[in-house]
TrEMBL record:
Keywords: Photosynthesis, Photosystem II. Pfam families: NAD_binding_10. SUPFAM superfamilies: NAD(P)-binding Rossmann-fold domains. This is NAD dependent epimerase/dehydratase family protein. One of its GO terms (cellular component) is photosystem II. Residues 6-106 form the NAD(P)-binding domain. One of its GO terms (biological process) is photosynthesis. The lineage of its organism: Bacteria, Pseudomonadati, Pseudomonadota, Alphaproteobacteria, Sphingomonadales. It comes from the Bacteria.
Length: 106
């Protein structure tokens, strides 16, 4: 299974659709699961993952072999710094992925 982090973003939606069309099993993630309803209708498994909350990584990574990370903090309306998402969040996600043996992380 391929995990798409930030699947509610423009890039994440395109990547998720292309992976599904190519026949891959995809787990699409976003901070809010309700933003993924259209991708669920296409066959994606959907889950919440918040790069500010490392405790959300484990369930999202379960059974995954590859990760495509398209989440970013550039358009955050919550006042989060870019570093909180793009640096600290992704670093923590990479560490969690490494710990569970993810084969490829993009």
């Amino acid at each position: 299974m391929i995990l798409v982090v930030g699947a509610a973003s423009r890039l994440g939606r395109v990547v998720t659709r292309l992976l599904l069309e190519a026949g891959h099993a995809v787990r699409a993630t976003a901070r809010r699961r309700d933003r993924l309803e259209d991708l669920a209708a296409l066959g994606a498994e959907c889950a919440e993952l918040d790069l500010r909350r490392p405790e959300s990584f484990g369930p999202a990574l379960d059974g995954v072999t590859r990760v495509f990370a398209s989440a970013h903090g550039l358009t955050s309306r919550r006042g989060d710094s870019v570093d909180a998402i793009d640096l600290a969040g992704h670093t923590a996600l990479i560490d969690a992925a490494r710990a569970v043996g993810i084969e490829r992380f993009v």
